[in-house]
């Protein structure tokens, strides 16, 4: 194997492991915590987790096999099934991210009427649309025999080699697919999250004004306390920007190279480096590994659930640990009291 192939194989193996573990943890948190199940975003996250898990156990391992063996992983029929899943799961996960961004936009912009605007029924309808949308594109590609093993990506996916007899139709289909999945989702993410950022900055400014007025009134306040308040203002403004940048940035970094490569492949007859093709595919796969951290595991509710599950597995409880600390402090006080009386 070439050094670049070994590096790509190690990278893909790491993505598979991280994706499987992190998405399984998200699924366990969803099943364990009833509060998460009651929330509307939990349905979108569950759908996204389902797509990522299925992608991790079906498409990623076969791409790894294709990288190692440099050959066709399985028969033609099997590869078509995997290619169908590749188109369906990728499209479904992108649209789930768009649905999550719309949900958060409504929650921030219309906080008082959020529960009347976004209900579980609305979430189910939105998820139904993502499934129909994804099934339409993946079914058309499979029935038209445009799915097969693509050497450039070492994957069973859309393959222009199999569409020689229908070149124009395949080009139109591919452009429509990426326009109504990647481009549509990117536009929705940018519009919704930038509006969320605008609202967040507006509230931060209001809080900053109140804070500054309070600091002016508190003449005797210590300079270090005043500086801490100013630093907290700065951190608050940066926190919102970082979150929005993470949502949009991870989507662009992971999917844009692969989509751009697919479009270039349609219109440029020149050869594309297979190392770049595999790398772009690995970047697309890495979104499945990053999604649990971007949308779930770094949130307080999921962290709390993970901590509770870890304590339960280790047969500890926060109550026992806190009572143990109280007991230790009581013993220490008794020892000090005894020594003082002894003196």
How does this structure look, described?
- It is found in: Cell membrane.
- It is a multi-pass membrane protein.
- It comes from Myripristis murdjan.
- This protein is an all-alpha fold and 343 residues long.
- The protein has one domain: Up-down Bundle (Rhopdopsin 7-helix transmembrane proteins).
- It contains twelve helices and two strands.
- A two-stranded antiparallel sheet has the order 1-2.
- Strand 1 and strand 2 form a beta hairpin.
- Helix 1 packs antiparallel against helix 4, helix 8 runs antiparallel to helix 9 and helix 9 packs antiparallel against helix 10.
- The chain is globular and about 70 Å long.
- The N and C termini lie far apart (78 Å).
- The C terminus is likely disordered.
Basic shape:
globular
CATH architecture call: Up-down Bundle
Q: Widest sheet: strand order?
A: 1-2
Q: Strand portion, in percent? A: under 5%
Rounded to the nearest angstrom, the radius of gyration is 26 Å
Rounded mean pLDDT is 83
Low-confidence stretches: 321-343
Distance between the termini: 78 Å
CATH superfamily: Rhodopsin 7-helix transmembrane proteins
Broad structural category: mainly alpha
Report the top-level CATH class. Mainly Alpha
Number of helices, counting only DSSP H or I runs of 4 residues or more: 12
Q: What does the largest sheet look like?
A: 2 strands, antiparallel
Number of domains: 1
Could you give the order of the helices and strands?
HHHHHHHEEHHHHH
Oligomeric state: single chain
Per CATH, what is the topology?
Answer: Rhopdopsin 7-helix transmembrane proteins
């Amino acid at each position: 194997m070439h050094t670049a192939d070994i590096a790509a194989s190690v990278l893909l193996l790491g993505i598979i492991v991280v994706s499987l573990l992190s998405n399984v943890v998200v699924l366990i948190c969803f099943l364990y915590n009833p509060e998460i199940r009651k929330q509307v975003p939990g349905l979108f996250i569950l759908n996204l987790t389902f797509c990522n898990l299925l992608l991790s156990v079906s498409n990623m391992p076969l791409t790894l096999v294709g990288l190692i063996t440099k050959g066709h992983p399985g028969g033609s029929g099997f590869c078509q099934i995997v290619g169908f899943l590749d188109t369906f799961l990728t499209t479904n996960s992108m649209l789930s991210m768009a649905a999550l961004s719309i949900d958060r936009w409504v929650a921030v912009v219309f906080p008082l009427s959020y529960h009347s605007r976004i209900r579980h029924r609305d979430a189910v309808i939105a998820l139904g649309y993502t499934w129909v949308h994804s099934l339409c594109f993946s079914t058309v590609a499979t029935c038209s025999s445009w799915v097969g093993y693509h050497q450039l990506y070492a994957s069973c996916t859309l393959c222009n080699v199999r569409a020689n007899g229908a070149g124009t139709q395949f080009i139109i289909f591919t452009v429509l697919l990426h326009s109504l999945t990647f481009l549509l989702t990117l536009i929705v993410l940018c519009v919704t999250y930038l509006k969320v950022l605008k609202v967040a900055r507006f509230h931060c400014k209001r809080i900053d004004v109140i804070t500054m007025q309070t600091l002016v009134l508190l003449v005797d306040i210590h300079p270090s306390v005043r500086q801490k308040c100013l630093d907290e203002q700065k951190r608050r403004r940066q926190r919102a920007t970082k979150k929005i940048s993470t949502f949009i940035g991870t989507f662009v970094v992971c999917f844009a190279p692969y989509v751009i490569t697919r479009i270039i492949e349609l219109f440029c007859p020149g050869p594309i480096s297979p190392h770049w093709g595999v790398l772009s595919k690995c970047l697309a796969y890495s979104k499945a590994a990053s999604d649990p951290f971007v949308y779930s595991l770094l949130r307080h509710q999921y962290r709390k659930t993970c901590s509770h599950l870890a304590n339960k597995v280790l047969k500890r409880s926060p109550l026992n640990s806190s009572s143990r600390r109280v007991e230790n402090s009581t013993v220490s006080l008794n020892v000090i009291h005894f020594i003082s009386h002894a003196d």
